Amino acid sequence: xxxxxxEASFIFKKxxxxxxxxxxxxxxxxxxxxxxxxxxxxxxxxxxxxxIYHQSSCPYTPQQNGIAERKNRHILEVARxxxxxxxxxxxx
Length: 92
Fold this sequence. Notes:
Number of strands: 2
Distance between the termini: 18 Å
Mean pLDDT: 84
Number of helices: 3
Low-confidence stretches: none
Shape: extended
Number of domains: 2
Structural class: mainly alpha
Largest sheet: 2 strands, parallel
Strand content: 5-15%
Helix content: 40-55%
């Protein structure tokens, strides 16, 4: 789990290796929000070395993150439903 935003580059590199090993395919486009953690020198060099195009969303446009936002909402709703049905205390 990511502890700091500065770890985004390291986490992406690990994820990219996983995709290459498990599916024998490469990532062609990385779409991110406009956070500074995605524009580090290290990550930018890595993306260009591997031919990965970096797209960033426009500032203050959550509409561009629609699919990711819906998936996150769905995951949270399912987790809450599972916790409710198993009588997990509310403070969790």
